[in-house]
Amino acid sequence: MNVIKRSILAVACLACTGLSLRAEATASAREVFADLILAAPEEQVVWVEVLSGYGDPVISEIYAAWRAGGIYTLESEGGQRLLELDGEQEWTAVRTGEAVQLTEAEASSAAKNRPSRKLRKVMKGLIDTLGLKAPDAATRIDSAIKMGRSQKSEYLEPLRQRLEVESDAKVQAALREALAISLLENGDAGEVLAAVGELAAMKSIPAKDFIDKILAKETAGEGVETELSQACTQALVTIERHIKTIEFYGSFFRGFSTGSVLLIVSFGLAITFGLMGVINMAHGEFVAIGGYVTFMVQRAFADVWGAGSAAFEWYFVVALPVSFLVAALLGLLLEKSVIRFLYRRPLESLLCTWGISMVMQQAFRLIFGAANVQVNNPNWLMGNLTFGGFNMSFTRLFVLLLALLVVFLTWLLLRKTHLGLHIRAVMQNREMASGLGIPVARVNSLTFALGCGLAALGGAALSQIGNVGPLMGQAYIVDSFMVVVIGSVGNLLGAGVSAMGIGLVDQLLQPSLGPVMGKITVFAVIILFLQWRPGGIFPTRSRSLED
Question: Is there a domain that residue 507 lies in?
C-alpha cells in the first residue's frame, strides 16, 4: 500500500473518531511524526499507519531521540510545540527541522515527552521495515538483506508487500532472496522446498549456511534421503560452484589491478635502468613519496574546504599531478647531486641508492611518524560494479584505467616528442647520440626525473588500495626489478606484459598456496624463465659495441 492510500485510510479512520486532522498525503514525514507524538494514546496507532508509508530516514532519527528522552513539549499561545534537544544543547523544531532559540524560561518549562511501552513495540516494527521504503535503492537492498537473514516471521508480510510494488530489478531480486531465506525457517514443507529451489536458481551465497542447517536436520534422523534433502544437496553444490567461480574471477581482477600498480612503478625503473644502467634501490621510496603527497593534498583540502565538502571529492585528482611533479623534482635533484657520478657503475650505484633509501625512510618517520597515515577514498571511488555476482571495486577499476593512461602518455612521450626521440637514441647508442649533438647529460636528468615521477604516480594509486607508510615502496621494489628483467631491460612493452603476468600469477596462486608459497613459486618460475630466455621476453637490439 503506497503513501497516498495509507494517508487516505488514516484520514478516514480519524474522521470516524471525530478528530481534526492537519496531515494529508502531501505532508512530510516530520509533520506526520509530530502529529503522532501529540496525538492521544488511543489514536497514535492510526498515525503509525500513516507514517509507515514513508521511507524518510529522518523517522529513525526522531524516534531515536524520542526514545532517549530528547523530545520536549512546549506550551505556547499557538498551541503545543514539539522540540528536539541534541547533545550540544541546541533546540530543533520536530515539525520543520529548523533551529529554534528558546529563552531560559521557555527551556525550563519544556516537558520531556516519551513513547509508551505499547507504542515502542509498534514503532519497532515500523523502524525495522523503514528501509524498504527508502528512496535510495541501495538502502532498500540492505534493509531487505538484513530482514531476510534475521528470518523473523513478522517480516514476511512487509517483504511480500514491498515486492508487489517494487519496480527496481536489483531490489526485486534482493526482496525475493530475503523472502526465500525467511521461508526456510517460517514456511511449510512445500514453501521450504520451493524456497530452496529458488535460492539455488539465484545462486544465493548468503543462503548457503541456512540451507546447510536444513540439510543437517533432514539427515539427522535415520539418514533416509528425502526430496528436501536432495534439493538442499543440489542447491549447495550449485552455490559452492558459484563461489569458486567468483573467487577465480576475483583473483583474476585483483591480479590485473596489482599488475597495474606494478606496471606504473616499473615503467620508470625500466626507463632509468635501461637508459643509464643505474640500479636505483631508492625507487621504492619515490613510491612512498607519491603516497605521502596524496596524504598531504588530502589534508590540505580538508583544512581549506572541509572533509565533507564537494571540493574535497577532487583532492585525489589534484594529488596525481602534484605527486608526479614533487617526485620528479626530487629525482632531478638526486640525479644532479649523486646519480650522474654513478653511470655504468652498477655496484656503486646499488650501494649508494640503497643508502639513500635508508635515509629517505628515516626522513618519512621523522616527518610523518612510524605508523601508517590514513588516506581516505573519495566518494566517487567508493562502491562496486557488480556483474554476475562478481564485485569489482571502483578503486581498482580506476587504478586499471590510470595504468592504461600512463602507458598511453608514456608512449606519446617516447614516440611523438623530441625528448622521447633523444631518450630512444641514447638508449640505442650513447656515444653516437652524443656525437650527433644530443645533450646526453640533460636527457639523463630528465629521464631519471620522469622515472621518479612515474613511481610516485604508482604510490598515489597504491594509497587508495593499501597503506601509506615509510616502507610501502619496499614491497614493490623487488617485483619491479623482476618486471624490468623479465620484460627485457629498457623495453616498455615487455615491462607491461611482465607486470600483468606477475600480478596475475601471484594472485591466482595465493588462494591455493598461500601468500608466502605463492610468492616463492612465482620467484621459481621467473628463475626458470630467465634460464630459458636470459634476455627477457623482448630482448633489446642495440647498435652499441658495448653490447
Answer: yes
Q: Based on the domain organization, do 208 and 294 belong to the same domain?
A: no
> pLDDT category, 540, cuts 50, 70, 90?
low
What is the rounded CA–CA span in Å between residue 376 and residue 299? 10
Coil, helix or strand at residue 386: strand
Question: How many structural domains compose the chain?
Answer: 3
Residue 7: CA count within 13 A, CB half-sphere: 18
Spatial CB neighbours of 368, under 8 Å, sequence gap ≥ 6: 292, 295, 470
Residues 321, 316: Cα–Cα separation, whole Å:
9
Owner of C-alpha cell 587508495: 464
259 belongs to a structural domain: yes
The three cell numbers locating residue 190: 512445500
256 in the same domain as 335:
yes
pLDDT tens digits, one per residue of 193-233 = 999 999 999 988 889 999 999 888 888 765 567 888 889 99
Cα 348 to Cα 35: distance, rounded to the nearest angstrom? 81
Domain that holds residue 527: 245-372+392-532
Query: Do 144 and 285 sit in the same domain of this protein?
Result: no
Task: Please give the Cα distance from 303 to 326 (Å, whole number).
Answer: 21
336 and 449 both lie in a single domain: yes
Strand 91-93 relative to strand 99-100, pairing: antiparallel
The SS3 of residue 352 is helix
Average pLDDT, the chain: 81
Q: What is the pLDDT of residue 271?
A: 77
**453 burial level (CB within 10 Å; 0-12, 13-18, 19+):** buried
Residues 287 and 169 in one domain: no
The answer, as to whether pTM is greater than 0.85, is no
Q: Please tell me the predicted confidence (pLDDT) of residue 491.
A: 65
Neighbours of 504 (CB within 10 A): 18
pLDDT in tens, 369-420: 988 998 988 888 888 887 766 778 888 889 889 988 988 888 888 888 888 8
Cα 474 from Cα 354, distance rounded (Å): 11
User: Is residue 64 located within the same domain as residue 140?
Assistant: no
Residue 381 inside a domain? The answer is: no
**Boundary-marking domain end, from 71, 92, 126:** 126
Number of helices followed by number of strands (H, E) in the chain: 22, 7
User: Is 44 in contact with 71 (CB distance < 8 Å)?
Assistant: no
Q: Determine the 3-state secondary structure of 266 from DSSP.
A: helix
Residues 325 and 439 reside in one and the same domain: yes
In a domain, 377, yes or no: no
Q: Are residues 145 and 258 in the same domain?
A: no
Let me know the angle formed at the C-alpha of 209 by 203 and 211, rounded to the nearest 5 degrees. Answer: 70
Burial 422-450 (b: 16+ CB within 10 A, else e): bbebbbbbbeebeeeebebeebbbbbbbb
pLDDT at 286: 93
Residue 503 exposed, middle or buried by CB count within 10 Å (0-12, 13-18, 19+): buried
SS3 80: strand
